[in-house]
Amino acid sequence: MKVSLFITCLCDMFSTDVGKDTVEILERVGCEVDFPEAQTCCGQPAYNSGYLTDAKESMKQMMKAFQFSDYVVGPSGSCVGMLKEYPEIFKNDLVWKEEAEKLAAKSFELTQFLVDVLGVVDVGSTFKGKITYHPSCHMMRILGVKEAPMTLLRHVEGAELVELPIKEDCCGFGGTFAVKNSVISGEMVKEKSAHVAETGAEYLVSGDMGCLLNIGGRMKREGKNVKVAHITGILNQH
């Protein structure tokens, strides 16, 4: 099965290991992975800030970049969720409407692709440690991915998975929300940090780097000894 990697901005700029781990996991389950170098930002920051015209230029470039891909897989529920919004954004555009629909239909978040498309629930990973999982808002609410990450984590040999209290609550990042509403965002991540501490976990795991950067930064400032790990970093341990 041929898969194109959608790296996402945060992983590309701040956590390159996530991209490497994603490719290695996909190859381990039998996928042939390529990387279209023409890809760029999905357009979400500009779109959420009201700059629709500018956002559309990024979106058009994404549609061009992945035009000939069979599947598009990314390690971010938030960014892949944005690709799923393209058909609505371009619904009245006679030129781009069809391409928007095609890209949305073949785009998947990594754990969603593994579990729901490939039917893989165990990627053969081994990890020693106590972990808790934070489900990002965009992955849950926009993309609708809830069980796939937990299914994969439950099959990690040696890992102790503990439930995060009030896990559905937002961490306060929300992309530009954290910038525009910094005081409210700060209180939200303060609460999330406290919930992570309650679990006694050694590692906080999530499928979106934005959440991990936000929560991890708060916990570090509070002196909490909890490491953050993208889910690919756990799934690629073997």
Question: What characteristics describe this protein?
Answer:
single chain; 8 strands; four-stranded parallel β-sheet; alpha/beta; 50% helix; 238 residues; Rossmann fold; 2 domains
Describe this structure in words.
The protein is built from 14 helices and 8 strands. The strands form 2 sheets. The protein has a 4-stranded parallel beta sheet, sandwiched between helices. Strands 6-5-7-8 form a 4-stranded parallel beta sheet, sandwiched between helices. The longest helix has 18 residues, at 182-199. It is 50% helix and 15% strand. Strand 7 (203-206), helix 13 (209-221) and strand 8 form a beta-alpha-beta unit. It has 2 domains: 2-116, no CATH class; 121-235, Rossmann fold (3-Layer(aba) Sandwich), CATH 3.40.50. With 238 residues, it is of the alpha/beta class. The protein is globular, with a radius of gyration of 18 Å. 44% of the residues are buried. Helix 8 (110-117) packs across helix 10 and helix 12 (182-199) packs across helix 13 (209-221). The protein has helices at 9-14, 16-28, 44-48, 52-65, 77-83, 86-89, 97-105, 110-117, 137-142, 147-154, 177-180, 182-199, 209-221, 231-235; strands spanning 2-5, 32-34, 72-74, 107-109, 126-134, 157-162, 203-206, 227-230.
